UniProtKB/TrEMBL annotation:
The keyword Aminoacyl-tRNA synthetase does not apply. Gene3D superfamilies: Peptidyl-tRNA hydrolase (3.40.50.1470). Belongs to the PTH family. It comes from Pseudoduganella namucuonensis. The record marks N11 as: Discriminates between blocked and unblocked aminoacyl-tRNA. It comes from the Bacteria. This is Peptidyl-tRNA hydrolase. Its main location: cytoplasm. NCBIfam families: pth. SUPFAM superfamilies: Peptidyl-tRNA hydrolase-like.
Length: 194
């Protein structure tokens, strides 16, 4: 078993491009830019930006749903069913309120933790048993902000936070080849101790 589909979560459109909720898009954009011939292109049947590429010698799909966050499952479920990709071969990259900026954690399964994108993907795949790569963005409370969560995720990070989030994305990119080779324990150790 290895990762065959890497999904970056975010919201489409220039007004959301630099917002915290788009951390998943940032990773997939960086990954696509680092791989020869991996160009994300609009695929209307999945309502997403899609690229077919090779990572560590394995065929991998990259996906950025263009449905807005809370409908991400439409794209993920559609592509996974069409290409017969099992839930445990799916990696969903998303922003995580419960991790500080700069942290990145890998896990398989578990609840959505209130994340609407994950809720919709779980519903579309019929299981929680898929991989998640959680990019820490912090929580308004722990960052001493009086901002509501919904407002917080849809705004840009402060400069110092953004630098830390970018570092977490870079750390995460280094373990993607291991995930695509099915080396989950090694990838997890490397990411969690980096």
């Amino acid at each position: 078993m290895s990762i065959r589909l890497i999904v970056g979560l975010g919201n489409p459109g220039p007004e959301y491009e630099q917002t915290r909720h788009n951390a998943g898009f940032w990773l997939v954009d960086n990954l696509a830019n680092s791989l020869p011939g991996a160009r994300l292109q609009r695929e209307s049947r999945f309502n997403a930006l899609v690229a077919k590429t090779s990572v560590a010698g394995n065929e991998v799909w990259l996906l950025e749903p263009q449905t807005y966050m809370n409908r991400s499952g439409q794209s993920v479920g559609g592509l996974a069913r069409f290409y017969k990709i099992n839930p445990d071969e799916v990696l969903v990259v998303h922003d995580e309120l419960d991790l500080p900026p700069g942290a990145a954690k890998l896990k398989k399964g578990g609840s959505s933790g209130g994340h609407n994108g994950l809720k919709d993907i779980t519903s579309a795949l019929g299981t929680q048993d898929y991989w998640r790569l959680r990019i820490g963005i912090g929580h308004p409370r722990t960052l001493n902000l009086a901002q509501p969560v919904a407002d917080f995720v849809l705004h840009r990070a402060r400069r110092d936070e953004q630098l830390l989030i970018d570092e977490a994305v870079e750390k995460s990119l280094r373990v993607i080849p291991l995930l695509c080779e099915g080396k989950f324990p090694l990838a997890t150790t490397q990411l969690h101790t980096a």
